[in-house]
Write a structure and sequence with these properties.
The protein has 194 residues and is α+β, with helices and mostly antiparallel strands. The protein is 36% helix and 22% strand. The protein has five helices and seven strands.
Length: 194
């Protein structure tokens, strides 16, 4: 067996053993999901039957591993995405690994940032600093155009506040919370016909 073929075979067997030894759903759901691993070198396919809960395990494992890699960057906290830095396996591991990580944006925060982009404000994200990160806004339409910042909690991913500057600094407005920031951006977008 060549090295690649052996690796594929061992990976498929390890998954098969894990899923057989640790069912995630009632027995009647066995084989509800089929994962096929194909050896690109030989074309040989390895079929692994799993339950829907096993698919969730694989997704959580991939998400936790991606989180670990992201968090390994110098501007992040360096915590393991699997155990959230505790070093312990527990039933809470999946819940901990899916918690918002530093620099994360909730779906609502992402929608507000998208609204800013639609309004032509060219949102640019900063690095994390003292428990927050910012989205810089600039309409880039001259000195009288709108600019400002949206401050987001690094752990929660939620919008904390925003400061928007109108008319070249003649008007500075502070907004607290997601709803207020969304309203302000919507009003601006409507005022310029977007």
């Amino acid at each position: 067996m060549n090295t690649t073929t052996e690796r594929v075979f061992r990976a498929a067997n390890a998954l098969r053993e894990l899923f057989q030894d640790y069912p995630s759903d009632p027995e009647d759901t066995t084989g509800a999901v089929v994962l096929t691993i194909t050896d690109a070198a030989s074309g040989q396919q390895h079929r692994v039957e799993l339950q829907p809960g096993h698919a969730d395990w694989l997704r959580q494992l991939a998400e936790a591993e991606a989180s670990t890699y992201r968090r390994a960057h110098l501007d992040q906290d360096g915590r393991c995405g699997h155990c959230n830095g505790t070093g312990r396996a527990s039933s809470n591991t999946a819940r901990q690994s899916s918690a918002p990580e530093p620099g994360h944006a909730t779906r609502v925060t992402q929608q507000v940032i998208a609204l800013a982009a639609q309004a032509g404000l060219h949102p640019t994200r900063s690095k994390r600093y003292r428990g927050t990160w910012r989205v810089y806004l600039d309409a880039k339409a001259g000195t009288q155009s709108l600019c400002g910042t949206i401050t987001v909690g690094a752990r929660s991913g939620r919008i904390l506040r925003a400061q928007l500057v109108h008319d070249g600094g003649a008007k500075v407005a502070d907004y607290t919370g997601t709803a207020a920031v969304r309203r302000a951006l919507a009003v601006y977008a409507n005022s310029i016909g977007r």
